[in-house]
Amino acid sequence: MTWDHVNGTVAADAAGIREIACDESGSDGENLTGGNTDVFAHASVLLSAASAAGHVQEIRDRIRSPAEEYKANHLLREKHRAVLEWLLSPSGPLHGRAHVHLVEKPFYIVDRAVDLLLDDPGAAVSLFAEGRRTFTGEEWTSFLEAANHLLWVRHDEPPDTPHTPVARFFHLVDTLRGRHPGTPAADVLGRLSEERPRALSYRAGIQDGPFVLAPVLNPLLPSILHTAAHWSDGGRPVRLAHDRQNMLTPERIAWIEGEARRRGIRLAGLRLVVSRFDARVQLADFLAGIARRIASDELNGRGDPALSALLRPYTGAAAVWGDERSWARLGPARESGGPSAPVDSRAQGLS
Predict the structure, then answer these.
(1) Where is this region: Disordered (predicted)?
(2) Which range marks the domain in which residue 136 is found?
(3) pLDDT band at residue 349 using 50, 70 and 90 as cut-offs
(4) How would you write 276-311 as a 3-class SS string?
(5) How far, in Å, CA of 23 to CA of 281, rounded?
(6) CA distance 172 to 146
(7) What is the C-alpha to C-alpha distance for residues 202 and 205, in angstroms, rounded to an integer?
(8) CA–centroid distance for 230 within its chain
(9) In a designed cystine with 185, which of 91, 134, 147, 313 is the match (CB 3.0 to 4.6 A)?
(10) Buried-exposed string 257-273: b where 16+ CB fall within 10 A, e elsewhere
């Protein structure tokens, strides 16, 4: 094992492989409209175990809570604002050694539904922007819920009837087209309305291995691939150490590793660890929870400019994000100084 003594990071093991510690926040499985959060965050850090342990101990010394296990909420309390700002600051322990992949759940639903039916990233961006402007709040929520249920992997669906996800989704599409004729949103809905056979084919094959193994709506697996792609950029092999998660079965880990090979991502492996025994994963857990809260607040118009600015160096341009206003504050800045636009995951082959 070789070390970067200046930054406290593990440069690589004897085989030239760096290990990245990961955790997530905001996971609701495929229930993206009925869950507790509107943002999913996948965080990763590159630090040695000893360095990470020292940083976790410093956080504990600064916060001085009697809690046995610290979580992001400890850092997000107003009385610990100074600790939070130190953690994210350019002089803090994570700067240049951590990354966050963000997913805006409402946009993710639209993106996945349009990908299934039209395979047109531009249509997803258009429908998300125009739909929110054109439909009432209740109509937009109903559309998201119908799209969520259309894609949700279930094992007990009856043949297509007025009560199935396919029938409900296309009935709502036709209803919204009728209520808002001539609008850009209705134009995209018109294209969707012609793709009922695709939706029926998807539902008919939903119990097949690929859909059960890698559900279309669960953002965790593609986020792990994004993380591996980020850290292996330039051809550097990486191994991921991820906090234990029910979704990460041996079969799905094998799928992730296979997909990485297929897409040219230098992922040497993925192993599961218990966060309370790995300070690196604890720091990833802190960062994921902090990023999710900051991003959600920004998305909902109650963002803290200082915290959003501190988060920006960690966010990746490959975020699955549709709200331009909030992304202008959260996304990594271009070299010219302006904010980067959200990047559709399919453009990078990582959906």
Answers:
(1) 331-351
(2) 106-213
(3) very low
(4) HHCHHHHHHHHHHHHHHHHHHHHHCCCCCHHHHHHH
(5) 6
(6) 8
(7) 5
(8) 14
(9) 134
(10) bebbeeeebbbbebeeb
Three-state DSSP class for residue 204: helix
Q: Please give the single-letter amino acid code of residue 52.
A: A
Report the amino acid identity of residue 264: G
Q: Are residues 79 and 8 in the same domain?
A: yes
- Predicted confidence at residue 345, as pLDDT, reads 47
Residues in the chain: 351
Statement to judge: residues 118 and 86 lie in one domain: no
> What is residue 97's predicted lDDT score, i.e. its pLDDT?
96
pLDDT for 189-223, tens place per residue?
A: 999 999 999 999 998 888 766 788 889 999 999 99
**Which strand (E) or helix (H) includes residue 62?**
helix 49-63
CA distance 344 to 351: 8
Residues 76 and 167 in one domain: no
Q: What is the dihedral of CA 258, 260, 265, 270, to 10 degrees?
A: -90
* 3-state DSSP assignment of residue 271: strand
242 plus 300 within the same structural domain: yes
Between CA 330 and CA 309 the distance in angstroms is 7
Question: What does the DSSP assignment read for 121-180?
Answer: HHHHHHHHHHHHHHS-HHHHHHHHHHHHHHHS--S-PPSS-TTSHHHHHHHHHHHHHHHS
Give percent of the chain with pLDDT exceeding 70.
Answer: 86
Across the beta sheet with 98-104, what order do the strands follow? 98-104, 39-45, 18-25, 238-243, 267-273
Phi-psi group of 337: left, alpha or beta (phi > 0 → left; psi -120 to 50 → alpha; rest → beta): left
The one-letter amino acid at 213: L
Same domain, 202 and 234: no
Q: Are residues 98 and 114 in the same domain?
A: no
pLDDT in tens, 124-167: 999 999 999 999 999 999 999 999 999 998 655 665 565 689 99
Please identify which residue in the block is written with the tokens 């930054």.
Answer: 7
Element (H, E) at 267: strand 267-273
Unique residue bearing structure tokens 């929520």? 141
**Residues 309, 82: contact at Cβ < 8 Å?**
no
